[in-house]
Design a protein that fits this description.
This protein is α+β, with helices and mostly antiparallel strands. 26% of the residues lie in helices and 23% in strands. Bound molecules: zinc ion (ZN). Zinc ion binds at residues 288, 353, 355, 436-437.
Length: 849
Amino acid sequence: MNEPVDRRHFIATTASGAAAVMLTAAAGGTAAAATPGAAPAAAPRKPRALTSVRPFPLTAVTLLPGTFKDNQSRNTAYLRFVDIDRLLHTFRLNVGIASSAQPCGGWESPTTELRGHSTGHLLSGLALTYANTGDTALLDKSRKLVSALAACQAKSPAAGYRTGYLSAFPENFFDRLEAGSGVWAPYYTIHKIMAGLVDQYRLAGNAEALETVLRQAAWVDTRTARLSYDQMQRVLETEYGGMNDVLADLHAITGDSRWLRVAERFTHARVFDPLSRNEDRLAGLHANTQIPKMVGALRLWEEGLDSRYRTIGENFWKIVTDHHTYVIGGNSNGEAFHEPDAIAAQLSGSCCENCNSYNMLKLARLIHFHAPERTDLLDYYERTLFNQMLGEQDPDSAHGFNIYYTGLAPGSFKQQPSFMGPDPNQYSTDYDNFSCDHGSGMETHAKFADTIYTRGDRSLLVNLFIPSEVRWQEKGITWRQTTGFPDQQTTTLTVASGAASLELRVRIPSWASGARAKLNGTTLPDQPKPGSWLIIDRQWKTGDRVEVTLPMALRLDPTPDDPDIRAVLYGPVVLAGAYGTVTGMTMPRLKQDSVVQQATSPMRFTATADGQSVTLLPIARVHHQRYNVYWLTGQPPTPPPAFAAWYRFDETSGTTAADATGRGKTARLTGGATWTTGRTGGAVALNGTNAYVTLADDLLAGATAYSLATWVRLDGTPATWTRIFDIGSGVTANMFLTPVADSGKLRFAITAGGGGAEQRIEADPLPTGQWTHVAVAYGGGTAVLYVGGREVGRNNRVTVEPVHFGNHIRAAYLGKSQYPDPYLRAAFDDFRVYGRTLSANEVATLAES
Ligand SMILES: [Zn+2]
């Protein structure tokens, strides 16, 4: 049944919205809604570009049945279940209030310096969930928790702390922080508690929470006002969460400029200044330490401080999403940022800390409020929400347990990292392994409703395709979104009740080519481009229905650092290979044209990788089994010849070392590397500060057998993790020989899944100050380590070979690591590379020659 299209509608053709738009004079169209003097219906009219939008309150948006609501419900069950007395235990003991509650585990244990942070997340989770669901049991629990915290705060002076102090650890942690004597992250923890109290005030109307957090903020003022600028900058070197963010919120709530002054003390110049110049100096920084500061920077600008803060926050978002972000929307490997565009080179089981994305989404959302025409912010939001955030929670747990990282090495598994303790549970648990991600998870799964829609003066923005209902009270209209997205490629927006004249804007994602819309059953002629807004401006009435089709297509996204390493996407959904219980995986080689959608299920695909059939599923839905996200593509490289390279280092001048095999695999002396007298003829000397030898590209690329042999003289005791050689494509895939591992031993290791997946041989340390022959020979699953021509160790269960490193090996060194490890002080002579397995006799002969 096609109803006539009775009003005008517009479709913006670019993301900027300022460019040309079309007016469609649809069948039965009239100009009844036009203001007097407005152009006739057939003339073009531009929708006004939106310069800012606001969120709907969580009370106005309800999740309807679907995966997001399921996740929220499990989280709500946990929030209802969790015993606040256990989470108050260390707060109470800290001020001398008796507590017989059972202590918590993980980072809430009574001896962990981060204790108390989860109680802050709990305050937020309770407030968010109450606001979104109206669950009064949570309101009651919140009141008890806030009152109990206020009681702890009141006892602080009697316990010897300054007035207003509220924490589960003693105030002397801040003495240690200010003295630089080493402490985990006290302001990080204080921020979580303060943010939780602010959420309790704003979302649950708890006045006691505001009084408590204002006293706590006054304590922060007192504590930080005593410090010089330089002292404060040193304090800021330790992770402090979003202290600037929560203090900006207190300014917004109270209008008291005092809180902005205190907030600005948390401006970390070493990080902020390069970002103000749009410089990427993120490599080596702990990632999640930086992101909340950037949320705070945006908030300082929103509260009226210099626009430089906005610039800093926006530059950071762009740098991170353009150059430090994996296909699922997350960032960081081993919790750090690395060199720009190092993605394939930085895969491990500890990629993508989930807290980082929780904070990056906050930042994207804030930027969106002030740049609502941009669709890239929301494309990022969608990518991260649907792939990482949705999938961090165990769907089989009644209490919505979370993981810490979303690993991206081949064969990753959703589980807590080993440093969270030997708990057999793979995800977080009720009380035993509290972590930052268990904490941020309590909030993430409570606030899915906060960004689905935003609003301008008379614009309703549909940002995300999640089943939900939004009540726009001031306009007297309620919209319902029904969709099976992403399993369905449509979303339907219906006026559930009321009537209003307004502009409906639906995000057309950058991945959606050929999007179309129907208004009350009639297909609109317009063809909105990917990365734009579909805009329909009319007088809406109950029952009006807009159906938007967003066609998804399969595509393979190459990594920026290795175009042959790719991830498979269908629309916004990242597909992961489901590998069950397979262990010791290396990156599978995908037959690119083999990916086929299964007729029975739109989000189930099969493909051929390494000659075998594999099922591909959305990564968010892969749980309790191993998975693979990045794939090798293209043809494998030709294996190296039997004798692949030979560096005699007899040059004595220049910066190149010839390949004596005649194959032209020239090496380069880099940094402070110099020529010296060798064991025979010349040698190369490395100074231990910046010198190394860069080996030719693709040495051993494609190899399934190899040997490496060299004379080396260690000049002085080598530092831990220095390298004799390191050959690979980054920290994901490499093989190295270190004179000193963390065990104190000589170690050979090879991995194709990051540092956590090394296969090793260890032996006694090498002598120093004398020429020593070392060699590694590998073939058929056995690697043998030789020192002085004699075997000192072997590993018969090696499954990783250079053929698994990728199609290219572009990071091969003598004296330098793939990681930012110390440089080696040593001399090298007669370094040889073979594409075959040297026998023990052959190695012995080399060591005698
Ligand atoms: Zn975390």
